[in-house]
Task: structure prediction
Amino acid sequence: MVSKKKLLLIVVITILITAFTTYTFGNFAMVKTGDKVLVSESDFNIMKSYAQKYNKFEKLISYAQENFLYEADEEIMLEGALKGMLNALGDPYTEYMTQKEFNSLLEQTKGSYEGIGVYITPSDDNRIMVVSPIEDTPAEKAGLKTGDKIIKINGTEYTAEQMDDAIKIMKGMPNTSVTLTILRVDKDGKPQTFDIDVMRETIKLVTVKSAMLEDNIGYIRITTFDELTAADFKAQYKALEKQGMKGLVIDLRYNPGGIIDATVEITDMLMGEGYVTYTQTKAGEREYYNSDKNKIEIPYVLLVNEGSASASEIMAGAVKDTKSGTLIGTKTFGKGIVQRIQRFGTDGSGVKMTISEYFTPSGVNIHGIGIDPDITLELNEGTEGYGSDYYSTDNQLQKAVEVIKGKLTKN
Result:
């Protein structure tokens, strides 16, 4: 019996020779007559070309099964072929995923998982690079930083091509430890390599946190954009509003992105009528994400840095282009492409594929470039943390409050 994965990869031609039922092969019309199947000459030529095109796969599988010294598992080889086809495209964000890998990815938008709490991406030099540690997780507590490269896990080297395997190792039962070998470049450009032991935990993804700062200036931190983020943001905004909020700081530092719809729904509250972003495929097809005329009437600031990526940059780009708020911090990460995630086939596997690029309202694609803030300000070196809990030492947050106070004074 031909496996499902094989059917995704290889065209089965033997049905042209003998058959005992009536077949439908894709869009080809076939009619059974006795022990034969009749197709039109044009359909036959198309199917013949398919057989010739994919004949190498069959031959290579057979060759390996006959000659490879060790076991040559057909399913594993076919799975590797599917992965290899997408890897060959050279896009680190495009990949074929097994059922387990696909379900693991979906977990990240649902609420919780067991691991160390870090967002990673392939780097240009084929390393596993940290986009940002998730706030209040073992990765952050252990000292992982944006730009760190994970070169070994428990003593075994991993490259970006093996990122799925690396993720499997970093995940695991709570209260168990994993050792990461980190490559970090210091401010003088000198590379440093060292080990960090990280204790795994159940990571609960609380994506929105809020507080009231001095002079009734509200503070909302968004750690990532998942299915519940927009609703949580609105709820906490209303709570601050009831407390007499006069201005707002939205903290997107180290926010690696997430679901576009979530960031669009929140940005709609901030910028007024227009469009938040638009995406464009290679065929030139555009999809616009619109904002209505209703918006908040208090001054606000967005805090961004090199760990603010993807969906965070959609919000930052819309706010900067429309001048509806002020961006403070450092240049953002620079990820301006969009991936579609969907199931593939009937075995639970999936595909994540880059299908379009997104643009700010003024038509700028920031991929590989990032967004410069309106006010560039580095976080003071040696600062213990950032956010409302570290307000006394977080100079970027202090600057945001200062800017809002200035706007309130003018009003």
